[in-house]
Write a structure and sequence with these properties.
single chain, alpha+beta, 138 residues
C-alpha cells in the first residue's frame, strides 16, 4: 500500500513541476511578445516583465481552450506609466491592448473581422503603428 501512495505522490509532484515549467516558458514567450510589440509601436516596456493576471476559457474552432492574460506596464514618453495587456493561447498572441493600440483576434465562431467589430460599434480597433520621429514630416 505504501508503494502506491509514494507513486501517486511522485506523480502529483511531477505534474506540478511540469505545469510550472510550461507556464514559465509561456511567460517567457509573453515577455518576448510584449517587448516586440512595444518596440514596434515606439513604447517602452517598463521593468522588462509581464505577470499572469487572468485565465479564461474561449471557444476556438469548435473546442474549448484556456486563454491566459498577462499584464505589464509601458511608457509612452518616459514620464508616465500605462497598463498594457496581452492574451495568449499556447504560444500564440490572440489579443493585445496598449495605451494607444488595440488588437483583437475574434473567435472563429463569430465570423467577424476587426473591421466588422469596429463598424458594429465595438471599441476594438485593428493595429495601427505609431509614427516614429523619422516618419513625421515638418
Amino acid at each position: 500500500m505504501g508503494d502506491i501512495a509514494t507513486f501517486l505522490l511522485l506523480l502529483i509532484l511531477f505534474a506540478i513541476v511540469g505545469t510550472w515549467l510550461r507556464l514559465s516558458r509561456a511567460r517567457d514567450k509573453a515577455i518576448q511578445e510584449a517587448r516586440a510589440r512595444c518596440q514596434r509601436y515606439g513604447l517602452q516596456l517598463l521593468d522588462e516583465t509581464v505577470g499572469l493576471s487572468g485565465l479564461r476559457i474561449r471557444h476556438m474552432q469548435g473546442r474549448r481552450v484556456i486563454e491566459r492574460r498577462y499584464s505589464f506596464d509601458v511608457s509612452i514618453d518616459g514620464n508616465d506609466r500605462e497598463a498594457g495587456h496581452l492574451w495568449m493561447i499556447g504560444n500564440v498572441l490572440t489579443a493585445l491592448i496598449l495605451p494607444t493600440i488595440e488588437l483583437y483576434t475574434p473567435d472563429d465562431d463569430a465570423h467577424a473581422t476587426p473591421h466588422d467589430t469596429h463598424a458594429a460599434g465595438g471599441n476594438v480597433l485593428p493595429f495601427r503603428p505609431r509614427p516614429s520621429d523619422k516618419d513625421v514630416r515638418h
